[in-house]
Amino acid sequence: MATNLESAFHLSQLAHPLLKANGGGSIVFISSIAGMLGLTDASIYGATKGAMNQLTRNFACEWAKDGIRTNCVAPGPIWTPLSQPVFEDKETMARVLARLPLGRIGEPEEVASITAFLCLPAASYITGQIICVDGGRTVST
């Protein structure tokens, strides 16, 4: 079974010649703040997301000459069906919120909107960036 990292790598390799033939384009990976921070019980997950962040940077450098921009969105705590049981625990939720300067859990639409922006011409000078959508979690102590 392929990991998300392997899938991202292989799909990007397949897309590269098509994007190049079209005069360029944009690739946006979805990572996690776990690739930027040390988190408890997330070693393998964090390592794969950190690798995806580096893949973003490398592709940005390698493929810029072909007009292909590569960026990554790294969400923090976001309300999803997968995270809902975790956030329903009052103690866990209190710990998570205490680390978020914005004081709330993010919504999927907030991740989707930055992802869509990175694909637009308005983002044509942005490449190689890992953008955290995390309510300030990665900059808080």
TrEMBL record:
PANTHER family in the cross-refs: NADP-DEPENDENT MANNITOL DEHYDROGENASE, TROPINONE REDUCTASE
The protein's Enzyme Commission number: 1.1.1.206
Superkingdom of origin organism: Eukaryota
Name listed for the protein in its UniProt record: Tropinone reductase like
SUPFAM superfamilies: NAD(P)-binding Rossmann-fold domains (SSF51735)
Keywords in alphabetical order: Membrane, NADP, Oxidoreductase, Transmembrane, Transmembrane helix
InterPro entries (UniProt xref): NAD(P)-bd_dom_sf (IPR036291), Sc_DH/Rdtase_CS (IPR020904), SDR_fam (IPR002347), TR (IPR045000)
